[in-house]
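## retry 2 of 3
previous attempt timed out at serialization; input unchanged, resubmitting
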Amino acid sequence: MRLRAWAFWLCLMFISQAAGAEPRAGEPTEALRFNMYWGPIPVGSAMLTDAPASDAQGRPIRRIRLTCNSNFFVDLFCKVRDSLESVAARDLSRSMAYNKSLREGSVRRRFSTRLDWAHRRSIRLDLLDNSTLSRHLPESALDPLAVFYDFRQRFLQGNHAMQTDVTDGLYLVKARARMVGRERISVPYGTFDARKAQVCMSHVDGIFRASEPGCFFVWISDDRRGLPLILQAKVRVAGFLGDLSVELAGVENDQAQTKEQQQPSP
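## retry succeeded, writing output
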């Protein structure tokens, strides 16, 4: 069992290295910076990146990463260092790998999941107790991180309600999203007209982990970029239940903002 676990881990490392290829010309990496709040209190920061790449066979894929870190004050009593990584098809038709490392106070989780579409199985390795778990897959499924980009893309295409299969290698659930209204909101990055959506995705270990029904809200800018402006949910972190919100604070290599800054003043 130990030998199979290490072989699986080496395979995942190979996939991650192949996914880390440089983005192709004309397909820039998107990097979004967020501030994190527990109620009104600033508690940390997060970075979300989406980069085009190619796998070992030269097929187009995308690599999505999210890191969350608590600030100095929170580190004194509940240090948070979370990292999520998704490897998915460029068109978001399915995921190939999903990795998560979580540290929230004394709580630890580390696992890696490979989605084997040739055999329609997911294989999840728990890196803390060195155990593996295999599950049957449907015809297609996304991981809990890639599904946000799928929903975001479909909202931009004019859909108001959608659903898709999502797996973290342990649970397979039906994730659902629906638009519930429009608002004008302000975040550290600016003020936007936004579409408010409710996302329900219970049990799976993603950005938020919640029991049934596992619903939270996302505000998306009502423009061609569809920027995720706020993610808001009631969650439990290191045993504490509260309202966690993640608000957009910056967009690196923002071509739209750069163009506006280059416009001559009237």
